[in-house]
């Protein structure tokens, strides 16, 4: 079974509107971290936002926020006021706790391609 | 200057050739990683190193080897390249900083190396 599932291969959003990118995860660990990365067409991987499994509040970083629903094992990324420069691939990733999986492994989903329309 | 650099940025080689990809970082991080990305997939971990004397295999280490020459340098070698090693290769670094546990660490990625094996 996949550990990170991103069900939306591609999405479109109108400029200035908000968009939610879905991510569900599967782990038996109590301690884990959830990450979102952006990959523009140029190829680099840019860190956006982090949510820890014990964090009670949803993480926010500027226009990015993470809608964390622990019971549902979901960590959706919300981008507010979309800009043309937000067009990119977005990857959800998880790192499991010290006593669970590999200490080195950041597990990635297959990504969602977001296209922002002017 | 970029914190994590990779050389070369692009490389074309032939089947059976030995090739080395290099990664350098100025972030002062102890932990370094090599990932590969194939079209339509997320990233998969090849090797990781928690310090100069600690090197570990990741999910897909077969056909690869690594060398941690110094805290700041981590090289990936393909001893005898094959076409299915054609991919985008990323180096990443991380450090605990003010965090308590490994799962809270953010990994920061280099710009990637596009490798084509003919």
Properties at a glance:
heterodimer, A: 118 residues, mainly beta, six-stranded mixed beta sheet, four-stranded antiparallel beta sheet, globular, B: 118 residues, seven-stranded mixed beta sheet, 11 strands
Main β-sheet of chain A, in a few words?
6 strands, mixed
Assembly classification: heterodimer
Greatest chain-chain contact: A-B, 31 and 29 residues
Using only C-alpha atoms, the radius of gyration of chain A works out to: 14 Å
Mean pLDDT across every amino acid position of chain B: 92
Q: What number is the mean pLDDT of chain A?
A: 92
| Strands of chain A, count | 12
Distance between the termini of chain A: 38 Å
- State the helix count of chain A: 0
Shape of chain B: globular
Short description:
The complex is a heterodimer of chains A (118) and B (118). Chain A is mainly β.
Would you mind describing this structure in some detail?
Helix content of chain A is about 0%, strand content about 50%. Chain A contains no helices and twelve strands. Chain B is mostly beta strands and about 120 residues long. Helices cover about 0% and strands about 55% of the residues of chain B. Chain B contains no helices and eleven strands. In chain B, strands 2, 4, 5, 6, 9, 10 and 11 form a seven-stranded mixed sheet that branches. Chain B has a four-stranded antiparallel sheet with strand order 1-3-8-7, with no helix packed on it. In chain B, a hairpin with a 2-residue loop joins strand 7 and strand 8 (about 75-80). At the A-B interface, strand 5, strand 6, strand 10 and strand 11 of A face strand 5, strand 9 and strand 10 of B.
